Amino acid sequence: MARTVHILSDDEIALVRESSLLVGRTLAEVAGMIAPGVTTGELDRMAETFIRDNGGIPGFKGLYGCPSTLLISVNSEVVHGLPGDRALRDGDVASVDCGVLMNGFYGDSAYTFCVGEVAAETRTLLSVTLECLAKGIEQAVAGNRTGDIGHAIQQHAEAHGYGVVRELVGHGVGRKLHEAPEVPNYGRRGQGAILREGMALAIEPMINMGTKEVRQLDDGWTIVTRDGRPSAHFEHTVCVRAGKAEVLSTFSHIEDVLKRKGVMA
Ligand code: MG
Ligand code: MG
Question: What pairing do the DSSP bridges indicate for beta strands 179-183 and 200-203?
Fold first, then answer.
């Protein structure tokens, strides 16, 4: 990860927003298609076509050797699951992470979907992880530090008895997908990199129902929980502002689709 923290102009932030919104629309397409029997590879091919049809470039594909447009992590997979022939099953949860490069700037966002009927305790994990994201974003204001974001996320997750993944963190976003600073999902108030207006950050809590410990599968990509219990992951790209962060990506298109499908109240 590059060390330099970039402060983006309003014009540059507008481009990060455009890329982030295309990620949100892509994830809404995923929301429409995801169901028992659908394979992760089918979702990936649809997403690549959708992004290219809308003038973007898949942000992950080719980066660090990543073979796919989406990273889809099912159940005990935390992040970096590779799409393939796996058919989703009733009761699964699938974190779908997507990046877009457009006009020279990246956007990055992830959402964890329920496939069919999901156990109540797993649905609680998802809603608490979404709350963790909101609490992290509340702290993404000028003058705070990355530790304030991490602390807020960690406090909320651990209050529910959940494990906060340490090995993977949020990050700056801009002309590169991963820029400084690192944005851990744990930390101490007042510690870490100082946040300044115009910094674009990907905030992305990865929260495990059980232990915080993870390991990597032999494919060299997929990160899974050590205890095999489920994990959730939600991510927004945001811009640090004075007083209140500006959220650049959106879940609103996803939520519209899920409501239409009757999945959300
Ligand atoms: Mg991501
Ligand atoms: Mg990210």
Answer: unpaired
